[in-house]
Amino acid sequence: MDKIVNRKQQIKLFLFEFFSFLIVFSILGTIIFIFYQRNTYTSVDNTISRKAAMAASSKDIMGPPDFQTVTVYYNAKGKIVNAQYLNNMADTVSKIKVNKKQLNKIYNIEIGGETIRRVYVRVHAQTPITHQGKVLRASQQPKYALVLKNINPEIQSITRFKELLLGSLIIFGLIVFIISYIISRINMKPVLKAWKQQEEFVDSAAHEIRTPLTIIQNKLEGLMTKPNDTIKEQAGAIIMSLSEIRRLNGLTSDMLTLARANSNVITLEKKPVDFGEFMKEILEPYQDLITSEGKKLVTAIQVDRPVLVDAKRLHQLIVILLDNAINYTKTGATITVNGRVENRNLKIQVCDTGIGISDSHKKSVFKRFYREEKSGNKQTGGNGLGLSIADWIVRAHKGRIKVTDNPGGGTIFTVLIPVGK
């Protein structure tokens, strides 16, 4: 079922990316085509308008020679007065009907399979128009001029450009199809990874919560079967229930912290901290605890200046690492806490001479609910969320945390947090 859901999600992501790219390229291609077509017609219209302006104000019926356009002159009765100069265009021009309502309008017409762009203008000459130095008769005096330009070459150019653009879009569409498929697979990897982690988290959380709830339920049901017993007689059941409630409370608190951290709800409040005094306040309560268990605590804090950190979260980090060291060391072991500034990083090390962590499990110790000891013994470890929280705290400080073997046996947790100069 999960595979089907994930497959559907990947297909949706692929289709979304493919059509998004396709729409973008289509819009871009359309804009380029419109721009090219408009520029082509603008160039043609500029030529026609310039020629029309010259024809409207020219004093010579022929005007300057122009191989791009043909100018046709009409007298007041609408007859062509320069037909003898039109050569092979005479038949084509004779088919064109013009009227005064079409004055100064540029548009296309189709004649004999040719596309011609035209404009009809009024001639504004103040003096009689001449031809080759001779004044034309009144009946031949032009009153209107029609400027024509065959734009078949331009239309063919636009058509070829459109075909080239469509071909390019098809090729790019295939490329986009391949790229979208690859990107969808790449983008789905973290989603699938997060999905798997979420499933593992839910399964582990359900297991961790079910155990104390079952114990509490059994103890309470046991109390219900002995209503006449005193509190003293059932003190063991009550104490165990309270212990499980405290464990459950700690578990839910850790889960809430991780959930809020992953949702970016928690923000760090960095302030200058006197690291020497800060560590002294944390380690003093642990000195008696570690000594009472027959273990030894050694500290070497060599930081003589304030560091910019979130004191609350850093305190939580140190406590997690210390608790981890205490829980996984036996009587007679040594726990060492070092602190110094090295290469603009605050370097904190918590070392122990305990049972150590195998190489195959070092990369997994920061995962949620992970414990190398699969039994989940409450005496040797918590709920498996401590190191996940520690990892988040370090990453939130833009730092790094790693676990290595202690040469003398045991484990070393090294934290590097950037603190600048």
Q: Order of SSEs, N→C? A: HEHEEEEEHHEHEEHEEHEE
* Helix vs. strand class: alpha+beta
Major sheet description? 5 strands, mixed
Low-confidence stretches: 374-380
Number of strand elements? 13
Distinct helical segment count = 7
Distance between the termini: 54 Å
Provide a brief overview of the structure:
The chain is an alpha+beta fold and 421 residues long. The protein contains seven helices and 13 strands.
Structure report:
With 421 residues, the protein is of the alpha+beta class. It has 7 helices and 13 strands. The protein has helices spanning 2-57, 90-94, 152-224, 235-262, 275-292, 311-327, 386-396, and strands at residues 70-74, 107-111, 114-122, 130-131, 134-135, 144-150, 271-274, 296-302, 306-309, 334-342, 345-352, 400-405, 411-418. The protein has a 5-stranded mixed beta sheet with strand order 8-10-11-13-12. A 4-stranded antiparallel beta sheet has the order 1-6-3-2. Strand 2 (107-111) and strand 3 form a beta hairpin. The model is unreliable at 374-380 (pLDDT under 50).
List keywords for this structure.
3 domains; Helix Hairpins; single chain; four-stranded antiparallel sheet; 49% helix; 421 residues; alpha+beta; 7 helices; Beta-Lactamase; five-stranded mixed sheet; Heat Shock Protein 90
Task: Note the topology.
Elements: H1 2-57, E1 70-74, H2 90-94, E2 107-111, E3 114-122, E4 130-131, E5 134-135, E6 144-150, H3 152-224, H4 235-262, E7 271-274, H5 275-292, E8 296-302, E9 306-309, H6 311-327, E10 334-342, E11 345-352, H7 386-396, E12 400-405, E13 411-418
Parallel strand pairs: 8-10
Antiparallel strand pairs: 1-6, 2-3, 3-6, 4-5, 7-9, 10-11, 11-13, 12-13
Helix pairs in contact: 1-3, 3-4, 4-7, 5-6, 6-7
